[in-house]
Design brief:
The complex is a heterotrimer of chains A (about 375), B (about 270) and C (about 280). Chain A has two domains: about 190 residues, P-loop containing nucleotide triphosphate hydrolases (Rossmann fold, 3-Layer(aba) Sandwich), CATH 3.40.50; about 70 residues, Alpha-Beta Plaits, CATH 3.30.70. Chain A contains 13 helices and 13 strands. In chain A, the strands form three sheets. Chain A has a six-stranded mixed beta sheet with strand order 5-6-7-3-8-9, sandwiched between helices. In chain A, helix 5 packs antiparallel against helix 6 and helix 12 crosses helix 13. The two termini of chain A are about 30 Å apart. Helix content of chain C is about 75%, strand content about 0%. Chain C has a two-stranded antiparallel ribbon with strand order 1-2. In chain C, helix 5 runs antiparallel to helix 10 and helix 9 packs parallel to helix 13. The longest helix of chain C is centred in the C-terminal third of the chain and has 30 residues. Classes of the chains: A alpha/beta (about 375), B mainly alpha (about 270), C mainly alpha (about 280). Chains A and B meet through helix 1 of A and loops of B.
Chain lengths: ~375, ~270, ~280
């Protein structure tokens, strides 16, 4: 269910940049090697004598291009490699293999002239000084990025107006609400007019109103300045509201790269059916449709339905059959048919249900290619 | 709880505490190194003074032996729970502790004993090295009974410091912030416990006061038993006085703690 | 002004421009620390009182020693007060500008807060080592200079002009040397999680600076020249003001400068090594 207000960004056809890409990534990989050490004194001694090295492949041969002005969402379960990828794009981590270029620079060289053209906002980490007004932190940013007084003033005024925080600039950061603090973080990040902004879970912990403001702001910046934005998020509403293009990584590998609308269309073989009956009704597990795996019985939301409500998930092609079966179960009072939740679909993808994965891969016809 | 039960509870907590401390061996090595640096510097500086012909009331043997043994006695008698206790009271986390079977104080005592066990193992080799470098003016060959008396005295000193800490921490029931008081106390006690300078080196007009004040009986007196030429009579008398001070601080600390608990529970915090 | 203009011209066209930009940044750190300190006025006062009390307590051994003798290895009480004054002043400077940052490095590494700093177009070592400033600690610098003055007055001698110059040079070099030593110790946090205890121990090594290195045996003297260079930071500057640096000791000041340059380069190289490790391994 799309509950978020959709803010217009610059729509790009999925996965195909219209102009020369601002970010190019080829076979980007990252393997962590670490030493496993048993805890305690014995472990410390043993660890000193003989090291046990383990390695973990966090990012596996990612390849993609991002054009200037795109707003791209990076989705994936925890440990999928999203943050690792982000860190490699911002120069915080050295890639183990592959090539990455942003704005023509190799990020891990951490050239000053590269770093001043980007910024990274991490939802759970703050870059603001706690006990002083946000304005003081902004002055620090001014010096760090070598902004002239005029430019600083102009940028500050513009962003403060956009974010509606003019009155809060002189308030110590610790006194701000979480939403207000996030606005200040964003202000700081955009003060020096970066061409590319990376955001790691920017709306985490915010209330609905604040989330919407953040999304509106980011979309606005993208429209006005053509800032390229790469966002990682767990919140599908973020992605749906901002991004026209989505990259899904799972186990470090690219599982999908294309338009969000395409994605939703492709991996949505199922429909949700909610049937309310006059009397308690059950559907037998050995009933034809259920046994074939075409229909899945879900828990109805309301506890007091008393068995009158059947909540079912059904493959698209079986919908017709199901709808004709339902009246035979009992006297039908109400019927609702809806699309399955996008978030659940993505979640299924992460768990790796065969149906979802093969659908992503673009299996030709429904009903074929299923395990 | 019977005495036997108390003993078992504490023993269990101590074993757990030791296992926990062993997870941070390097940290403890650093801590112990820190406690030994001060005495090393002091020993060297005072020895330089003696070498330059300073007319001290004691000789180089006294100085050297004193400072070599100082960190050991100081560590074994130390307590560190007052700030933690005050913070726990202020945060309201004390409720969590009070809900547990063992008393808060048992856990503090167990933690104290456990960490000291680990620290001892780490500190002794360091002191041995220190002693070896100073071996030319070290006198450890005193009568064995003195070492026994040192042990007893150090135990009582540990009780004194523990219950002073309990008393200070209990002030947290009534005061917002005890860090100022704590800091003042530590500064004062550094001087008059003998942790910084052997009390005998202070000016003559201070000796009377220094000799009777209770903090002498925390670090200085245990060391004096082995290092100075106190007679057996004087040692026994001293131990008696120390026992009196110990009882005073135990009773004082305990009653302050109980008083605080009552007021804490009354408020329904 | 065209927003695009600022992006294409280099941020630091010359090395001097980079130095200037970092200096302005440091000034901004001082400004922000003053804003903080004004809010916590009580803390500043407390720091001041604590400093005074600690100074008095630290002087007790010196006063006691010299109640028993007039001079130790050629140093009188007044001379030693001058040494202690330099130690006090340098520790005050370190406590104001360097030490608060050193103590935080192990925190940064453990919590992963380094990312927010490494992303900046600023020399990371400078940024990490200087961002926190505690102006209240500068009172110790004043009291240190006061102690030096008291020592010199007690002595009844005036330092020569050359002596003053040498003392200032050594003071500055000594500060740089000790700051580098602190940096090296704190940077070890990238390899071990126990460095918060380690930096505490290193703080204890600020103590020997109160005394002339002549008070210590040979081995310790070497330590105080090469590892924790109190010889350059407090003993030699004090000598410059009291006895004067005669003979071969004339070379001490230029030597200190050279040593300081090497120390900064070394600590910076070590830092870069640590960051390389961080950027290849952290998750």
């Amino acid at each position: 269910m799309v509950s978020a207000v959709r803010h217009p960004g610059i729509a790009m056809p999925g996965g195909r940049p219209a102009s020369s890409p601002i970010i190019t990534v080829r076979d980007l990989s990252k393997t962590y090697t670490f030493h496993r050490q048993a805890p305690g004194l014995r472990g410390a001694i043993r660890g000193a004598i003989r090291r046990q090295t383990e390695s973990r492949l966090a990012v596996d041969a990612l390849t993609f291009d991002i054009a200037p002005g795109e707003v791209v969402g990076l989705l994936g379960p925890n440990g999928a490699g999203k943050t690792t990828t982000l860190k490699m794009l911002t120069g915080l981590l050295d890639p183990t293999d592959g090539e990455v270029r942003v704005l023509g620079y190799r990020p891990f060289e951490r050239k000053t002239d590269y770093l001043r053209r980007i910024d990274l906002v991490m939802g759970q980490k703050t870059m603001l000084w706690w006990d002083v007004p946000a304005l003081e932190s902004f002055y620090l940013h001014k010096e760090m990025y070598g902004l002239s007084d005029a430019l600083f003033r102009e940028s500050l005024d513009e962003l403060a107006a956009l974010l509606e925080v003019e009155d809060l600039l002189q308030v110590p950061v610790r006194k701000l609400s979480l939403g207000e603090r996030m606005k200040m973080e964003l202000l700081a990040a955009l003060l020096h007019r970066p061409e590319v902004v990376f955001l790691d879970e920017p709306t985490i912990g915010l209330d609905v109103v604040a989330k919407d403001r953040v999304r509106a702001f980011l979309a606005g910046i993208n429209l006005q300045r053509g800032t390229t934005i790469l966002v990682t998020s767990h919140d599908m509403d973020d992605i749906e509201a901002l991004c026209s293009r989505v990259m899904i990584v799972n186990h470090g590998r690219m599982a999908y790269d294309g338009g969000l609308a395409d994605l939703v269309q492709r991996i949505q073989p199922r429909k949700r059916v909610r049937a309310t009956f006059a009397a308690p009704v059950t559907i037998a597990p050995d009933a034809a449709l259920v046994a074939d795996g075409l229909v899945r019985v879900l828990d109805p939301d309301e506890a007091d339905s008393g068995g009158n409500v059947l909540a079912l998930e059904v493959e698209r092609e079986a919908l017709g059959d199901l709808l004709s079966t339902l009246p035979r179960l009992g006297p039908l009072v109400d019927l609702a048919v809806a699309d399955a939740d996008v978030e659940e679909i993505i979640r299924d993808l992460f768990i790796g249900t065969a149906a979802a994965e093969s659908a992503i891969a673009g299996s030709p016809a429904v009903g074929e290619g299923r395990q | 709880m019977t005495l036997g039960e108390v003993f078992r509870v504490i023993r269990r907590l101590v074993v757990g505490g030791i296992a926990g401390s062993l997870a941070y061996p390097v940290d403890f090595v650093f801590y112990m190194l820190g406690t030994i640096i001060g005495p090393i510097i002091a020993a060297l500086v005072w020895r330089a003074a003696i070498a330059a012909g300073a007319d001290l009331p004691v000789d180089a043997q006294y100085i050297t032996t004193y400072f070599v043994l100082l960190s050991l006695v100081s560590m074994l008698s130390s307590a560190w729970l007052s700030m933690f206790m005050a913070d726990t009271i202020r945060d309201g986390r004390l409720n969590v502790w009070l809900a547990r079977p063992g008393s808060f104080l048992y856990e503090m005592a167990a933690n104290n004993i456990a960490e000291k066990a680990v620290k001892l193992v780490i500190l002794v080799p360091m002191i041995a090295i220190f002693a070896w470098f100073m071996r030319d003016s070290l006198t450890l060959g005193v009568a064995p009974w003195r070492w026994g008396a040192l042990l007893v005295s150090t135990l009582m000193a540990a009780l004194i410091f523990f219950w002073i800490d309990v008393a200070m921490g209990s002030l947290g029931f009534w005061l917002e912030d005890i860090s100022g008081l704590e800091w003042g106390r530590s500064l004062l006690t550094r001087l008059i416990t003998g942790q910084m300078i052997p009390l005998v080196l202070f000016p003559a007009w201070m000796q009377g006061f220094l000799h009777v004040q209770p903090f002498r009986y925390t670090v200085s007196f245990p060391l004096e038993i082995v290092v100075s030429n106190l007679s057996a009579q004087e040692v026994v008398t001293g131990l008696g006085v120390q026992a009196l001070w110990t009882a005073l601080f135990v009773i004082g600390g305990l009653s302050l703690w109980r008083r605080g608990l009552r007021s804490y529970a009354a408020v329904g915090a | 002004m065209d927003a695009n203009q600022i992006q294409t011209s280099p941020l630091d066209p010359t090395t001097w421009a980079a130095v200037r930009r970092h200096a302005r940044l440091w000034r901004a750190f001082v400004a922000i620390s003053l804003v903080r300190e004004v809010q916590f006025r009580a803390n500043a006062l407390a720091t001041l009182l604590v400093g005074v009390a600690q100074l008095v307590v630290s002087l007790v051994p010196i006063l006691l020693i010299f109640s028993f003798t007039g001079a130790v290895h050629g140093w009188s009480q007044a001379d030693v007060l001058v040494v202690a004054g330099f130690q006090q002043a340098i520790v005050g400077l370190l406590a104001a500008f360097i030490i608060p940052n050193m103590n935080r490095i192990s925190e940064y590494v453990e919590r992963g807060d380094l990312d927010v700093l490494l992303i900046r177009p600023v020399n990371a070592h400078v940024l990490v080592a200087t961002r926190w400033v505690r102006p209240a600690e500068l009172f110790s610098v004043l009291s240190g200079f006061g102690l030096i003055a008291i020592g010199l007055i007690h002595r009844g001698t005036m330092p020569s002009a050359i002596g003053i110059v040498q003392a200032l040079v050594l003071f500055a070099a000594g500060f740089v040397l000790l700051a580098s030593a602190w940096s090296v110790v704190a940077t070890c946090a990238f390899w071990t999680s126990s460095m918060s205890a380690g930096t505490m121990v290193f703080g204890d090594l600020m103590e020997p600076g109160r005394y002339p290195v002549a008070f210590f045996p040979r081995a310790i003297q070497v330590f105080l020249v090469a590892v924790v260079p109190w010889a350059f930071a407090s003993t030699f500057p004090a000598e410059a003001l009291t006895h004067g640096l005669a003979g071969w000791r004339w070379s001490v000041a230029p030597l200190a400068i050279a040593f300081a340059v090497v120390a900064v380069a070394g600590s910076h190289a070590f830092w870069n090594r640590a960051i390389r490790r961080y950027s290849s391994a952290s998750s």
